[in-house]
Amino acid sequence: MVAKRIIPCLDVADGRVVKGVNFVGLRDAGDPVELACRYSAAGADELVFLDIAASHQGRGTLVELVQRTAEAVTIPFTVGGGISSVEGITVLLRAGADKVSLNSSAVRDPELVARGAGRFGCQCIVVAIDARARAGGGWDVYVKGGRENTGLDAVAWARQVVALGAGEILLTSMDGDGTQAGYALELTRAVADAVPVPVIASGGAGCIDHLAEALDPGPAGGHASAALLASLLHDGILSVEQIKTELLRRGLPIRPLALSC
Amino acid sequence: MSRLGLIDYGMGNLHSVQRAFERLGATVQTVQCGAEMEGCKALVLPGVGAFDPAMERLRQGGLAEAITTWCDAGRPLLGICLGLQLLFEASDEGEAEGLGLLKGRVRALPRRPGHPIPHMGWEPLVPANPSPLLPAGSPESWVYFVHSYAAEPSDPACSTALVRFADTAVTAAVWQGAIGACQFHPEKSGPHGEAILRRWLAWLAAL
């Protein structure tokens, strides 16, 4: 089975990492490229940059950041935030991003997913879904950073975007995000079982048990192909090395750390 | 170090492939037509996206013919990802005729519960016939894959590496004559991918 991926996520604004990152020996905790190199060297399987400012003037800085990352980093990386057109996708992929992540813009204009996939292939179109449990069961899709309920059902929406050409789903539980109480396993499993493409679990990681649960292919697991992590890594609570060593010990398929040639 | 011609037909992340070779000391020039191949020691055919639009673009620009002429003369070429699939005769993904430099067909990966497609992520290579990319006794290589189709060479001898997928093993890398190709992305596969590119450059330098 393809190795389960551990993916650090960096929030950036105007070319800088927004949340502080505690990395031993780091020269500049705000430089996304330096952090990307650190995480890559530590054994991260992929990286995600989310442009949380997504301002018009910040776009040029983001493109420059993508270029610098592509020069330095030898693992795949995804860029998301404020991408609303095929031109926007083109600029970031040309700059060296491997994938782009669409969120609100896909809800507004689902055909953007189809146009992007048609032009560049489904492998580089990720659709990010922010979901929150609905009273009475099921999950609603939220946009605008969780402020606006679209009324879309998360599982049905995931099916729809995959039918349009999304090659991967980045699924964030709004209920779990920031709580460190664990990934939303039921939601993750429901989406992962509903679509043929890989699902990245996000939101709620607090310890290694949570990661193991999200990636667990068993009946009670989350069935995710990958886990996205932010503060747990950035705050230095866990390292990629610790996570991978422990997940390997538990028998999950994980790319080992011994990467020397 | 000899010059590499990186084929630019609008289907791929040229940037990463170019940087990966430059980090290893190679000189890379993008190539958009046959005339620009003069002076290159080897060609690199990258590519992401779909089979038919890729072949259409290669044929429109006369690149398909130039690549065929190049390879028929026994000159070296390295295909990457879609660039591997295009070397074969045809693909389940479309109707277009492939370059046909290698015999065989590209087939859709089998759909099995619990095995998402695209096949996306890191896997260790399963060595097959030794080649300059993977000589006998090479250390285990973990490389990054992202694909929904895999080549089935008519001649199994041209398989130099396989990768496990669901309950089967599919083509991960091929080698025949002076043509080599990887289904995975060596330019995105950290130090192990770099080692594979370095071996190819060393083979090239010794020609």
TrEMBL record, chain A:
Pathway: Amino-acid biosynthesis; L-histidine biosynthesis; L-histidine from 5-phospho-alpha-D-ribose 1-diphosphate: step 5/9. It catalyses: 5-[(5-phospho-1-deoxy-D-ribulos-1-ylimino)methylamino]-1-(5-phospho-beta-D-ribosyl)imidazole-4-carboxamide + L-glutamine = D-erythro-1-(imidazol-4-yl)glycerol 3-phosphate + 5-amino-1-(5-phospho-beta-D-ribosyl)imidazole-4-carboxamide + L-glutamate + H(+). GO terms for molecular function: imidazoleglycerol-phosphate synthase activity; lyase activity. InterPro entries: Aldolase_TIM, His_biosynth, HisF, IGPS_HisA/HisF, RibuloseP-bd_barrel. Signal peptide: none annotated. Keywords: Amino-acid biosynthesis, Cytoplasm, Histidine biosynthesis, Lyase. Pfam families: His_biosynth. Its EC number is 4.3.2.10. It is an enzyme of class 4 (lyase). It is found in: Cytoplasm. GO terms for biological process: L-histidine biosynthetic process. It comes from the Bacteria. GO terms for cellular component: cytoplasm. The active site is at D11, D130. The keyword tRNA processing does not apply. IGPS catalyzes the conversion of PRFAR and glutamine to IGP, AICAR and glutamate. The HisF subunit catalyzes the cyclization activity that produces IGP and AICAR from PRFAR using the ammonia provided by the HisH subunit. Heterodimer of HisH and HisF. Belongs to the HisA/HisF family. PANTHER family: IMIDAZOLE GLYCEROL PHOSPHATE SYNTHASE HISHF, IMIDAZOLE GLYCEROL PHOSPHATE SYNTHASE SUBUNIT HISF/H IGP SYNTHASE SUBUNIT HISF/H. HAMAP family: HisF. This is Imidazole glycerol phosphate synthase subunit HisF. The lineage of its organism: Bacteria, Bacillati, Cyanobacteriota, Cyanophyceae, Synechococcales.
UniProtKB/TrEMBL annotation, chain B:
The keyword Hydrolase applies. The active site is at C81 (nucleophile), H185, E187. GO terms for cellular component: cytoplasm. It holds the Pfam family GATase. It catalyses: L-glutamine + H2O = L-glutamate + NH4(+); 5-[(5-phospho-1-deoxy-D-ribulos-1-ylimino)methylamino]-1-(5-phospho-beta-D-ribosyl)imidazole-4-carboxamide + L-glutamine = D-erythro-1-(imidazol-4-yl)glycerol 3-phosphate + 5-amino-1-(5-phospho-beta-D-ribosyl)imidazole-4-carboxamide + L-glutamate + H(+). Its EC number is 4.3.2.10, 3.5.1.2. Its main location: cytoplasm. Keywords: Amino-acid biosynthesis, Cytoplasm, Glutamine amidotransferase, Histidine biosynthesis, Hydrolase, Lyase. PANTHER family: IMIDAZOLE GLYCEROL PHOSPHATE SYNTHASE SUBUNIT HISH (PTHR42701). NCBIfam families: IMP_synth_hisH. IGPS catalyzes the conversion of PRFAR and glutamine to IGP, AICAR and glutamate. The HisH subunit catalyzes the hydrolysis of glutamine to glutamate and ammonia as part of the synthesis of IGP and AICAR. The resulting ammonia molecule is channeled to the active site of HisF. This is Imidazole glycerol phosphate synthase subunit HisH. The lineage of its organism: Bacteria, Bacillati, Cyanobacteriota, Cyanophyceae, Synechococcales.
